[in-house]
Specification:
Blueprint lengths: L5 H6 L7 E3 L6 E2 L1 H13 L3 E14 L2 E13 L11 E15 L2 E11 L3 H6 L4 H7 L1
Parallel strand pairs: 1-6
Antiparallel strand pairs: 1-2, 3-4, 4-5, 5-6
Length: 135
């Protein structure tokens, strides 16, 4: 994804029924929908870099569950001056399910959820504990 290599990214996914949830997006099902979403993201992102932290891997037979925090730095299309658009940082917690195939490990499902920071909570008028209390 960082190199903008759509073909290489496509080869990481299973050919079978797959699913993907990008932060703030609905569930995408099937290879066509999932790969279209990545094509759209790549077409509208001039620069993206991932720093993975808190990586945990669990393998059971031919299935692997990988959780991590994606520390993402991205920038939109260049402005008229040719300068890269403003860079934006985002934290996403991700769960990735892989299946072992004769060609190697392939992604079966990806689910990314945004991590709310204290400033995000203040903008939303409270914190996560308020929602728990209300429930």
């Amino acid at each position: 994804m960082e190199r903008g290599d759509f073909q290489a990214l496509s080869e990481l996914w299973l050919e079978d029924e797959i699913s993907c949830i990008h932060p703030g997006w609905p569930v995408l099902s099937g290879r066509g929908e999932v790969l279209r979403s990545y094509a759209l993201i790549m077409a509208n992102t001039e620069y993206i870099q991932f720093f993975l932290t808190d990586v945990k891997v669990n393998v059971a037979g031919d299935t692997a569950l990988v959780t991590c925090t994606e520390n993402i730095l991205s920038g939109g299309p260049a402005e008229e001056s040719g300068e890269l658009g403003p860079l934006v940082g985002q934290l996403v917690v991700a769960t990735n399910v892989f299946r072992r195939t004769p060609e190697g490990w392939r992604i079966w499902s990806h689910h990314g959820s945004p991590v709310l920071t204290e400033s995000d909570e203040e903008e939303n008028g409270g914190n996560a504990d308020d929602a728990d209390t209300a429930a």
